[in-house]
Amino acid sequence: MMKPLSEKVYQEDRKLDEVIWIRREDIGSTKLPIVYSKKYAVRFAGLEKLHPFDAAKGKHIQKILCAELLLGNGDFYEPKEVTKEQLRRIHTRNYLKSLECSMNVASIAEVPLLTFVPNTYVQSCYLRPMRFQTAGSILAGKLALEYGWSINLGGGFHHCCNSKGGGFCPYADISMLVVRLFELEPFRVQRIMIVDLDAHQGNGHERDFHNVAAVYILDMYNAFIYPKDHEAKTTIRCAVELRPRTGDSFYLKKLAQCLKTAVSEFKPNVVIYNAGTDILEGDPLGNLAITPGGVIERDRLVFSTFRALNIPVVMLLSGGYLKKSACVIADSIVNLRRKGLLN
């Protein structure tokens, strides 16, 4: 999966990453290491409403954070669109070529009507926002190394691997972030932990990092829903298969145990936290029963565990199919700030 870099490719990648990595003059600025762009939103003449995903979730969260934390639009980091050259560092040419067919994209996005939409519009109104979110995840990785934490108000496309998309995930932003950190920060990053707490199994990054000892995956998920990828499960180092309607008490107890186990087995240089809110009670796809307070405590547990060890944390939002998800995420970020975990 991880290809060795020649010096020429390394230098080319350095130039490419200038559109994603933070600018030197931003270090020490008043900006918080929170990444967002208004270009994250998927808009396609109302077709986005045919999928339960809140296509403007990042916008709603940003608006709440501005009000609660007294921030302005300029207090967030904004990524530029990831390039085709960067995507090729992860994805096969055949897979990227397949995205030029609207039928293939419709299958990934789980919106069958996209099959009949010209691919030019599919690219601009669905795939382009996803490329911005992918770039946001990579930018968030760099920010976490500089500040100790970061949050991308998007991303977390954990069902996509290098050669296949699915589950509304067209690009493998988690895998791409892992590879970019290893390649471009080799002296600071030799071991990466992925903590995937979305309600669904993170089969994309699990397929990409099979037998890669430098990547440790902790995954807690509802075992009775999509994707049920048994082959990918073999990559998980710390797995908890939850039953439908699992509630706060059991969930938080198991998470605390898993985090303790994970840090005793593996000492990461950075943690990628896939913080899906489809674990919320009433979510039409997650089928768990976690309360908003349970989500807030979940996020606190993750951040407090790794911040106490001075391990940088990158938070990605991943799935969440209730309108209230945005409010819950914003409340959780505000809580982390008040608890001193986002200094």
Protein architecture, described:
With 343 residues, the protein is an alpha/beta fold. The protein has helices spanning 7-16, 57-68, 84-87, 93-98, 102-109, 119-147, 173-184, 203-208, 230-233, 248-265, 292-307, 325-338; strands at residues 34-35, 149-152, 192-196, 215-222, 238-242, 270-274, 313-316. Helix 11 (292-307) links the parallel strand 6 and strand 7 (313-316). The radius of gyration is 18 Å and the shape is globular.
Q: C-alpha Rg, in Å?
A: 18 Å
H and E string: HEHHHHHEHEHEHEHEHEH
Distance between the termini: 35 Å
Number of H/I helices: 12
Quantity of strands, as a count: 7
Outline the biggest β-sheet.
7 strands, parallel
Strand fraction equals 5-15%
C-alpha geometry = globular
Structural class computed from helices and strand pairing? alpha/beta
Tell me roughly what share of residues is in helical segments.
40-55%
> Low-confidence runs (pLDDT<50, min 5 residues)?
none
Could you give the order of strands across the largest sheet? 1-2-7-6-3-4-5
**Nearest-integer average pLDDT:** 91
Write the SSE topology:
Elements: H1 7-16, E1 34-35, H2 57-68, H3 84-87, H4 93-98, H5 102-109, H6 119-147, E2 149-152, H7 173-184, E3 192-196, H8 203-208, E4 215-222, H9 230-233, E5 238-242, H10 248-265, E6 270-274, H11 292-307, E7 313-316, H12 325-338
Parallel strand pairs: 1-2, 2-7, 3-4, 3-6, 4-5, 6-7
Helix pairs in contact: 2-12, 6-7, 10-11, 11-12
Give the gist of this structure.
The chain has 343 residues and is an alpha/beta fold. It is 41% helix and 10% strand.
